[in-house]
Amino acid sequence: MVLLLVIVGLISYYVYKSITPPPPIPLPENVSEISPRIKLNDGRHLAYKELGFPKDKAKNKIIIVHGNGNSKDVDLYITQEMIDEFKIYFLFFDRAGYGESDPNPTRTLKTDTYDIEELADKLQVGPKFHVIGMSLGAYPVYGCLKYIPNRLSGASLVVPLVNFWWSRVPQNLLNAAMKKLPIGFQLTLRVAHYSPWLLYWWMTQKWFPNSRNPKDTMTESDLELAEKHTKHSYIKESALRQGGYVTTQQDIIAGYGNWEFDPTELKNPFSDSNKGSVHMWCALEDKQISRDVLLYICDKLPWIKLHEVPDGGHYIIHEKRHFEAIIKAACSD
């Protein structure tokens, strides 16, 4: 009996250690010297980077929301010519847990949304701003359209994630989109949605497929851009310096969890006298994001301007000509 209890105890300890995420890796004491940060009302800090025209002189104020595994140092083709032509003030920031921003143990779509609003207020960006979100980083943009539409001068969703558990998008479309993904990626999303407490174990175990071969979900241009970004590996290392759970894994949980709303329920924030527009960028060669689902959303919400990029993959925002088109559309309303 004693031996049985010892065995059960050891197994229980192993299971507990396997499913319990480690604490975040502490940030260095001189973190404020590495990057400027603002203190939020709940005590957390967000790191940020400003670029372009001074806030009080800028005609266009754009907040960039980085994608999964990236940071405020996301590699984009911003030129001085672009800044001068459209009089742009850019604000980049590390989302909770990324880079030099403190993690949020209760992070959700809604908390990420209000982080953006509070960041803008603390930095006195002004009453209105345009948000651009890419890939998984687009879910806070959906959040802005839902929870703080009065603060927006515009929004751009660039190859935005598809949550396969949205309530009002036809299930056959979502199922077809899911089946196009590699099986390991499908399983990861299902674990994140149905058993988020198990995701850390799932991402670290070796028994079942939990990841994907980049070649399965990336075009040739995506692979070329990815190879280019590996030359700046310090950017990713900095982005994930606090550990994988509080960054990429919590991102997946927030993006693919149960939302309080469906995108097709959103109201046009610019339907009255408010000036502005919402843009959806769909890359036709994207192997990760379903065109059919994005088309359905835009059909239900005709106030979203759909931009289809025939020769673009998932990394279109990192290509000079496509990024310029995204910025031009955002600044032309």
Q: How is the topology of this model organized?
A:
Elements: H1 2-19, H2 31-34, E1 37-39, E2 45-52, E3 60-65, H3 80-86, E4 88-93, H4 109-122, E5 129-134, H5 139-147, E6 152-158, H6 171-179, H7 183-194, H8 199-204, H9 214-217, H10 220-230, H11 233-239, H12 245-256, E7 277-283, H13 291-300, E8 304-309, H14 320-331
Parallel strand pairs: 3-4, 3-5, 5-6, 6-7, 7-8
Antiparallel strand pairs: 1-2, 2-4
Outline the structure in words:
- This protein is α/β, with parallel strands linked by helices and 333 residues long.
- The protein is built from 14 helices and eight strands.
- It has helices at residues 2-19, 31-34, 80-86, 109-122, 139-147, 171-179, 183-194, 199-204, 214-217, 220-230, 233-239, 245-256, 291-300, 320-331; strands spanning 37-39, 45-52, 60-65, 88-93, 129-134, 152-158, 277-283, 304-309.
- Strands 1-2-4-3-5-6-7-8 form an eight-stranded mixed β-sheet, with helices on both faces.
- Helix 13 (291-300) links the parallel strand 7 and strand 8 (304-309).
- Helix 4 (109-122) packs across helix 5 (139-147).
- The longest helix is centred in the first third of the chain and has 18 residues, at 2-19.
- The chain starts with a helix and ends with a helix.
- The mean pLDDT is 89.
